Amino acid sequence: MKKTTVLTFVFGLLLFSCMETEDLGPVPVGSWSNLTHESNGFVMERVAKLQDNALGYRFLSNGQLIHRTYSGWCATPPIVTSDYVGTWERTGDTITLMAPYWGGIHRQEWMIRQSSDQSIQVEILSSEYDRNE
After folding, report:
1. Phi first, then psi: what are they for 2, rounded to 5°?
2. Cα 115 to the chain's mean position, in Å?
């Protein structure tokens, strides 16, 4: 009886140690800023709140998105930002965002490459701007 219990325990341990268990948890719920751009995406850091005139995202648990971005077409200093309310949805490790911007609607699809409680690295899979005419 003891031998069977020990073998079952060892087998279970081996089985679970070989499985990938990357749980991204509540990512991206929260506020994210301090964007560092990369060739096909960017890295963001979790912040307590979005700073004035700094780019960032606030993901609410109800699927609402607040995208703080440029308030106009000119992105030269001094930077002035506005908050645009949109939506987001996460399916597996893909995040779909839709939010207005100063000239229309911006739709994006991101792939989460890495995440922790303090940072998230995303690859931009698609990005589309529908302009107001």
Report:
1. -60, -40
2. 9
Q: What percent of the chain has pLDDT over 70?
A: 80
Is residue 73 within 8 Å of 53, Cβ to Cβ? no
Statement: residue 14 has pLDDT above 50: no
CA 125 – CA 107 distance, rounded (Å): 11
Following DSSP, what letter does each residue of the chain receive, concatenated? -HHHHHHHHHHHHHHHHTS-----TTTT-EEEEEEEEETTEEEEEEESSPPTT--EEEE-TTSEEEEEEESSS--SSSP-EEEEEEEEEEETTEEEEEEEETTEEEEEEEEEEEE-SSEEEEEEEEEEEEE--
**Contact in structure between 81 and 68 (CB atoms under 8 Å):** yes
pLDDT of residue 12: 47
**Whether residue 11 has pLDDT greater than 80:** no
In this prediction the pTM is 0.76
